UniProtKB/TrEMBL annotation, chain A:
The keyword Transmembrane helix applies. This is ABC transporter permease. The chain crosses the membrane at residues 12-35, 55-85, 97-120, 140-165, 186-214, 247-269. PANTHER family: INNER MEMBRANE ABC TRANSPORTER PERMEASE PROTEIN YDCU-RELATED, INNER MEMBRANE ABC TRANSPORTER PERMEASE PROTEIN YDCU-RELATED-RELATED. It comes from the Bacteria. It comes from Microbispora corallina. Keywords: Cell membrane, Membrane, Transmembrane, Transmembrane helix, Transport. It is found in: Cell membrane. SUPFAM superfamilies: MetI-like (SSF161098).
From TrEMBL, chain B:
It is a multi-pass membrane protein. This is ABC transporter permease. The chain crosses the membrane at residues 31-52, 77-100, 112-140, 160-177, 219-241, 261-283. The keyword Magnesium does not apply. InterPro entries: MetI-like (IPR000515), MetI-like_sf (IPR035906). Pfam families: BPD_transp_1. The lineage of its organism: Bacteria, Bacillati, Actinomycetota, Actinomycetes, Streptosporangiales.
UniProtKB/TrEMBL annotation, chain C:
It comes from the Bacteria. PROSITE patterns: ABC_TRANSPORTER_1, ABC_TRANSPORTER_2. This is ABC transporter ATP-binding protein. GO terms for molecular function: ATP binding.
Length: 278, 289, 361
C-alpha cells in the first residue's frame, strides 16, 4: 500500500483501527478456536464431536429451524408490506412506515419479550380479553417465539427491500407491457429476478438476526424451546460436566461456521443487485 | 441480542407512478396495511394497558412511578448511557481517521477495511462473549507476572466495565462503517480536500472544518446506531455479569412484572426519541446544503 | 410489414391542476415518421403514452386504422415503444431482452433466438447477444431497445426521446440509423423530441405542440420557412425581431423595402421576423452597425451585431469570413431580398419571454 502517490503515509491512520480489531476481536476468536480443540490440556476434537450430538445437536437444529421459518415468513410478509408502502400515493404513509420500521427493527432483546408476555402471555391483556387460554393458547413454544421474532424481522425486511423496490424502474414494467406481458409475466420474468438478490439478502439478514437472538428467548421461553444460544449460555455458566467447559466454545464455533456460510452466500448477491439497481 | 440496522434514507427516489391504476391493488394494499398495523400496534397498546391496569384499583400509573424508585434503576441507566457515549467516542476515533485517510491516499486498503469491519456481523454476540470470557478467565493465569494482569483486572471494574466498551466497539463496527462509508461516498472527499488544500488550508483544518461538517448526517446515524445498540445490548453484559440497563430490566422481571413491562415501554420510547432526533438532524443537513 | 394510420381525436388529459392535453387532434398517415416537437410540459409525451396505453385520456379517442383503441390495455396494443433510457431488463441478456415479447407469446426458443439474431444484425450489433445491459454503452442500449420494440413487427413504432440521454455524436449517427430502419420497414413512427434539429432532420412531418394543443403540423421545410404562428417561428430555429414599418403590401426594414409574406397587418409599426442566415454582414467603417460577439462554428460563424438604433441581431456568416468580422469591426447589415414574416410588436414580445433560447450567443 505504500508508495501510492506522494502522500504515502495515509495508511498509518488505519493502523490503530486494524490493531484494535486484531486485539479485541481477533484474540477472543483465536482463543475460542484454540479452546474448541483442547480438552484436559491436550489437543482433541472431543468438544466438537460432543457439540454435534444429543441435546446440543437438537439445540443447533432448533436454532436453524426457527431462523429459517422466521426468515422465510418475514421475507415474504416484509416484501408485501414494502410493496404496499412503495406503491402508495401517500408520502406520509411511506415516511411513517419507514420510521416505524427503523425503530421496530431495533426493538429486540428483553423489552420485546416483555411486551409480548404482557400481550399474549398467560396473563397477557389479549389472552385474557379473548379467553385464549381456554383454547390451548401458549406463547412459550416454537410458534410463539416465531411470532415474536417476526416483530423485528418484518421491519428489517421492509428496510432492506424498499430501496430495491424503489429501484425497479417504471420503464421496465411499461416495456414489459409494451411487449405484451401481463402483470404476472412481468413479475415472473423481470420483477422477481431483479429483486432476487435483495430478497435473498434480506432472508440472510433475517436468518442471522434470529439465529443470534438470545435475550428475547432467555426472557421468554427459558429452556422450553431448544436453541443453541441458550445451550451456550448454560455451558458458559458452568452448567456442564467437569472438564467439558469447552463445549460452549465448540458450540460457538458451530454457530460461527453456519453464520459464515450464510453470509458467504449473501455478499456476492448483494454486489450483483447493487449493479442492477444502480 | 442486538438487531441494530441501518436506516433507509427517507428521501429515496419517488415511488413508481401510480396514476390511473385499476382498483384491485388498492384493496390488496389496504388489507396488507391493516393487518400490519394490527400486528405491530397491538403489542404496544397491550403492554401499555398491562402496565396501567390494576386488577383491584383500575387505571393507575403506579408502575411508571415505581420505575424511578426501583433499586438499581438510576445506576444501570446511567451506566448504559455512559457506556454508550464512550463507545461512540471510541468507535468514531478509530474509524473516522482510518476511513478518510484510506479514501484519500490508500484506496487499495479500502477493501481490507471493508471486509474487516464487516466481519463482526458473522460472529453472533454470544459466541464473541464466549471468546471474551475465556480470555478473561485464562488471561490472569498466563499473564500473572506481567503488567497485562493489572490491565485485565482494571477493564472489569463493575463501576465502569471498559471491557464492555471494547466489545461494543467491535459490535458497532459494521454499522458505523456503513453509515460513514455512505456519508463519505455522498461527498467527494478527494475533490473537497484538494479544493481546500488549494485554498491554503492545513490538514487538520481540512478534516475538522471541511470534511466533518459535511459528514454530519453520516456521523449522526453512526452515533444513533451505536447508542441504540449499547442501550439494548443484553447478551454480553449478562454473561459477563455487569448490571447494565437491559440486564437490570431482566433482573427485576421476576418480582415485579408490571414494572418490568413499564420499563420496556419506556425503553422503546427512548429509542423512538433518539430516532426522531437523528432524522431531524439529517433533515436539517439536507435542507442546509 | 406496413404501417397503420393513427388518429388522435379531441384528446384531453388533466393531471390535477395542469392540463397536459387540451383537445389534441392529429392524424398520422401509414408509413410516415412524424415528430412531436415542443417544450417540456407541452403534452407530447402524454400523447405518446395515450397511444401506448400507459395513459388514458379524460376525453377523446385514439384510433389505429380507424379502430378505437382508447380502452385497450397496454399489453394488447400493436405498438412497439422505445423509452428515453434504462428500459432494458437488467436481469436478461441482449438476446432475451429482444425476444421478450416472443417469450410472452410462447414462440419456441429456437425461433426466438433466430429472430433475435436477425434483429441484432439489422441494428448492426451482431455479436452482443450474450451481453447484459450494464455492459453496453448508452447508444448500444438504445439500439437494442429499438430492436426489442420492432421484434414483434408492430404496425406503429413509438419513440419517446430515445436519443436525449446520448452524446451528441452518437445522437446524430443513431438518428440516421433509426430513419433508415423506419423507411425500410415502412412502419408508422411517432417520435417525441424537444430537439428541433432532430425533428427537422428526421421527420416526414413535424407537429409542434404547445400547452397540450397542436400549433402547426407541416413538413420540415414549410415549418421553418412559413411558421404558422409566432410561437412556431420562435421555437423552430432562431429568429431575429427587427423593427419595421408597413408601407402598402411591403415593409421597410434596415433601409430596405421587402415584400411581406402573407397578408399585410393593419398596424403600421411591426416586428419583422428574419432568420440569422438571411442577415448579410459586410465590413464598412460607416455602416452604422458593430460586431459585438462572434462565435465560430466551423462552416459558419454566428455574430451578434448591434444596429444603429441599439437593437441587436444575430447573423450567420460563412466561417471563412469570421476573421474579417471580428468583434469590434464596424459593419453594414442588410437582408436577403425575399418575402419576410411580420408580427405586431406586442405579441412577439410575449412570445420571446415564453420561449427561452439557449442557442443565442
Amino acid at each position: 500500500m505504500t508508495g501510492n502517490r506522494t502522500r504515502s503515509k495515509g495508511w498509518l491512520a488505519a493502523v490503530p483501527l486494524l490493531a484494535f480489531i486484531a486485539l479485541i476481536f481477533g484474540v477472543p476468536l483465536l482463543v475460542l478456536l484454540g479452546g474448541t480443540f483442547t480438552r484436559d490440556g491436550s489437543v482433541s476434537a472431543a468438544n466438537l464431536t460432543e457439540s454435534l450430538q444429543g441435546a446440543y445437536l437438537t439445540a443447533l437444529l432448533g436454532s436453524v429451524k426457527i431462523s429459517t421459518v422466521v426468515a422465510v415468513v418475514g421475507a415474504v410478509l416484509g416484501t408485501f408490506l414494502a410493496q404496499a408502502v412503495v406503491t402508495s400515493r401517500f408520502r406520509a404513509l411511506r415516511e411513517a412506515v419507514l420510521t416505524a420500521s427503523g425503530v421496530l427493527a431495533n426493538f429486540g432483546g428483553v423489552p420485546l419479550a416483555f411486551a409480548w408476555i404482557a400481550t399474549l402471555g398467560n396473563s397477557g391483556v389479549v389472552t385474557q380479553a379473548l379467553g385464549l387460554s381456554d383454547h390451548g393458547w401458549n406463547l412459550y413454544n416454537f410458534w410463539g417465539l416465531t411470532l415474536v421474532y417476526l416483530y423485528f424481522s418484518i421491519p428489517l425486511m421492509v428496510l432492506t427491500v424498499v430501496p430495491a423496490l424503489d429501484g425497479l424502474k417504471p420503464q421496465w414494467r411499461e416495456a414489459a407491457q409494451n411487449n405484451g406481458a401481463n402483470t404476472w409475466q412481468f413479475w415472473r420474468w423481470v420483477g422477481i429476478p431483479v429483486l432476487g438478490p435483495t430478497l435473498l439478502g434480506g432472508f440472510v439478514l433475517l436468518f442471522g438476526g434470529s439465529f443470534a437472538a438470545y435475550a428475547t428467548a432467555k426472557a421468554m421461553v427459558g429452556g422450553s424451546v431448544p436453541l443453541v444460544t441458550l445451550q451456550i449460555d448454560a455451558a458458559l455458566s458452568g452448567n456442564v460436566l467437569i472438564g467439558h467447559e469447552n463445549v460452549a466454545l465448540a458450540l460457538s464455533l458451530d454457530m460461527i461456521v453456519i453464520a459464515g456460510v450464510v453470509m458467504a452466500i449473501y455478499l456476492p448477491l448483494q454486489k450483483r443487485s447493487a449493479r442492477w439497481l444502480r | 441480542m442486538a438487531t441494530v440496522t441501518p436506516q433507509v434514507a427517507p428521501a429515496a427516489t419517488p415511488p413508481a407512478a401510480a396514476k390511473g391504476r385499476p382498483r384491485r391493488p388498492r384493496v390488496w394494499r389496504g388489507a396488507v396495511l391493516v393487518v400490519a398495523a394490527l400486528y405491530f400496534l397491538v403489542p404496544l397498546l397491550a403492554s401499555f394497558v398491562f402496565t396501567v391496569d390494576d386488577p383491584s384499583e383500575g387505571f393507575t400509573l403506579d408502575a411508571y412511578g415505581q420505575i424511578f424508585s426501583a433499586e438499581g434503576f438510576g445506576r444501570s441507566l446511567l451506566l448504559s448511557l455512559g457506556l454508550g457515549v464512550v463507545t461512540i467516542a471510541l468507535v468514531l476515533l478509530l474509524t473516522l481517521p482510518a476511513m478518510i485517510a484510506v479514501r484519500l491516499s490508500a484506496p487499495r486498503l479500502r477493501t481490507v477495511l471493508e471486509v474487516v469491519c464487516t466481519l463482526p456481523l458473522v460472529v453472533p454476540p454470544i459466541t464473541f462473549v464466549a471468546g471474551i470470557s475465556t480470555v478473561l478467565r485464562w488471561g490472569p493465569d498466563y499473564l500473572a507476572s506481567t503488567p497485562f494482569y493489572q490491565t485485565i483486572i482494571a477493564v472489569q471494574n463493575p463501576d465502569f466495565p471498559v471491557v464492555l466498551v471494547l466489545a461494543y466497539v467491535v459490535l458497532a463496527l459494521p454499522f458505523v462503517y456503513r453509515s460513514l462509508d455512505a456519508g463519505l461516498g455522498a461527498i467527494d472527499v478527494r475533490t473537497l480536500s484538494e479544493a481546500a488544500r488549494n485554498l491554503g488550508a492545513s490538514w487538520p483544518h481540512v478534516v475538522f472544518r471541511v470534511i466533518i461538517p459535511n459528514l454530519r448526517s453520516g456521523l449522526a446515524s453512526a452515533g444513533f446506531l451505536t447508542l441504540a445498540l449499547v442501550l439494548g445490548e443484553f447478551t454480553i453484559a449478562q454473561l459477563l455479569s455487569f448490571q447494565t440497563f437491559p440486564v437490570w430490566i431482566y433482573t427485576i422481571s421476576g418480582s415485579q412484572a408490571q414494572v418490568s413491562v413499564a420499563v420496556s415501554v419506556f425503553s422503546l420510547l427512548i429509542t423512538w426519541l433518539l430516532l426522531l432526533v437523528l432524522s431531524s438532524a439529517g433533515a436539517r443537513q439536507r435542507s442546509g446544503s | 410489414m406496413n404501417g397503420a394510420r393513427v388518429e388522435f381525436r379531441g384528446l384531453r388529459r388533466r393531471f390535477g391542476a395542469t392540463v397536459a392535453l387540451d383537445n389534441l387532434n392529429l392524424t398520422v398517415e401509414p408509413g410516415e415518421l412524424i415528430a412531436l416537437l415542443g417544450p417540456s410540459g407541452c403534452g407530447k409525451t402524454t400523447a405518446l403514452r395515450c397511444l401506448a396505453g400507459f395513459e388514458h385520456p379524460d376525453e377523446g379517442q385514439v384510433l389505429v386504422d380507424d379502430k378505437d383503441v382508447t380502452r385497450v390495455p397496454a399489453n394488447r396494443r400493436d405498438a412497439g415503444m422505445v423509452f428515453q433510457s434504462y428500459s432494458l431488463f437488467p436481469n436478461l441478456n441482449v438476446r432475451d431482452n429482444i425476444s421478450f415479447g416472443m417469450r410472452v407469446r410462447k414462440v419456441p426458443a429456437a425461433r426466438r433466438h433466430e429472430r433475435a439474431q436477425e434483429l441484432l444484425e439489422l441494428i448492426g450489433l451482431p455479436h452482443i447477444g450474450g451481453r447484459y445491459p450494464h455492459q453496453l454503452s448508452g447508444g448500444q442500449q438504445q439500439r437494442v431497445a429499438l430492436a426489442r420494440a420492432i421484434a414483434l413487427e408492430p404496425r406503429v413504432l413509438l419513440l419517446d426521446e430515445p436519443l436525449s440521454a446520448l452524446d451528441a455524436k452518437v445522437r446524430v449517427t443513431l438518428r440516421e440509423e433509426i430513419r433508415r430502419l423506419q423507411l425500410s420497414l415502412g412502419i408508422t413512427t411517432i417520435f417525441v423530441t424537444h430537439d428541433q434539429e432532430e425533428a427537422l432532420s428526421m421527420a416526414d412531418r413535424v407537429a409542434v405542440l404547445r400547452d397540450g394543443h397542436l400549433e402547426q403540423v407541416a413538413d420540415p421545410a414549410t415549418l421553418y420557412d412559413r411558421p404558422a404562428t409566432p410561437f412556431v417561428a420562435e421555437f423552430v430555429g432562431t429568429m431575429n425581431h427587427l423593427p419595421g414599418t408597413v408601407v402598402g403590401d411591403r415593409v421597410e426594414v434596415l433601409g430596405q423595402s421587402l415584400p411581406i409574406d402573407g397578408p399585410a397587418p393593419s398596424a403600421e409599426r411591426v416586428e419583422v421576423l428574419v432568420r440569422p442566415e438571411t442577415v448579410l454582414v459586410t465590413p464598412e467603417s460607416d455602416g452604422g452597425a458593430l460586431v459585438m460577439v462572434s462565435s465560430f462554428r466551423g462552416s459558419t460563424a454566428r455574430l451578434r451585431v448591434q444596429l444603429a438604433d441599439g437593437t441587436e441581431a444575430l447573423a450567420d456568416v460563412p466561417g471563412h469570413d469570421a476573421l474579417r468580422l471580428a468583434p469590434g469591426t464596424k459593419v453594414r447589415v442588410s437582408l436577403v431580398e425575399r418575402p419576410v414574416l411580420v408580427a405586431p410588436g406586442t405579441e412577439t414580445g410575449d412570445v420571446r419571454t415564453a420561449v427561452p433560447e439557449p442557442d443565442v450567443v
